[in-house]
Amino acid sequence: MYCPKCERDDLTESDFGRDRQRKSGLCSLCKRCTNENDRRWYAKNAENAREYCRKYDAANREKNREHSRWYDATYPEKVRESVRKYYDNPSNREKERESCRQWAKNNPERVLEYAHRYDARKRSAYVAPVNHREIYERDDWICQLCLQPVDQTLKYPHPMSKSLDHVKPLSKGGTHEPSNVQLAHFVCNCRKKNKTQW
Fold it and tell me: Do residue 144 and residue 183 come from a single domain?
């Protein structure tokens, strides 16, 4: 088969992509030439392409998620191989680590919640979703140990910053659920340790 762009005539059918609109069912250019054309077009129209993708993703988010779930379930071996190849590249590994660090920096309460849930699971305790903000609002931003107000602007590791205390500690068989957690100053929580009474 012949490609008019690279002028090679020793190509086979597998060297051409599919095109349903053409009578032959194959693209007129070989895969290599098609890829080169695509790269050149994207280099010139990168911002337009990104904007189009953003709009499409926003309009079809659920459809894309459903397709991803279907693909993951149908081709688990391909997915594993693709992920392995991606992480074999050291620059990709570092990029993912940096992305995780940035996410953790921007979502400290989510990180704390994951840590609490992990700790509870290690101790085989019952775990239910706990929204830190809702617990703080429920307790009116009053430390439930010393009964003094908690300054919302202070951040860990400031001693008077907010923290989540388990009323019955996980080490004593407590659960990780809204009814067993309360707002406390970080220093008060540290002083209480794993006692049931402060």
Answer: yes
142, 70: one domain: no
Contact indicator for 159, 115 with CB cutoff of 8 Å:
no
pTM: 0.56
Rounded to 5 degrees, φ, ψ at 17 are -80, 170
Show the tokens assigned to 197. Answer: 């009474």
Is the bond into 157 cis (omega within 30 degrees of 0)? yes
Q: Is 17 helix (H, G, I), strand (E, B) or coil?
A: strand
Q: Are residues 118 and 160 in the same domain?
A: yes
Spatial separation of the C-alpha atoms in residues 70 and 165, rounded to whole Å: 41
Judged against a pLDDT cut of 90, whether residue 74 lies above it is answered with: yes
**Which residues is 124 bridged to in the sheet?**
none
Report the pLDDT value the prediction gives residue 196, as an integer from 0 to 100.
Answer: 79
Indicate whether 86 and 129 sit together in one domain: no
Task: Return the beta strands (E) in the chain as ranges.
Answer: 16-18, 26-30, 162-166, 181-185
Sign of the C-alpha dihedral computed for residues 125, 126, 127 and 133 taken in this order: negative
Residue 20 pLDDT grade (very low, low, confident, very high; cuts 50, 70, 90): confident
Q: Which of 106, 121, 140 is the last residue of a domain?
A: 106
**Residues 112-149: b if buried by 16+ CB within 10 A, e if exposed:** bbeebbeebeeeebebeebebeebbeebeeebbbeeee
- Residue 111 tokens, joined: 């990180």
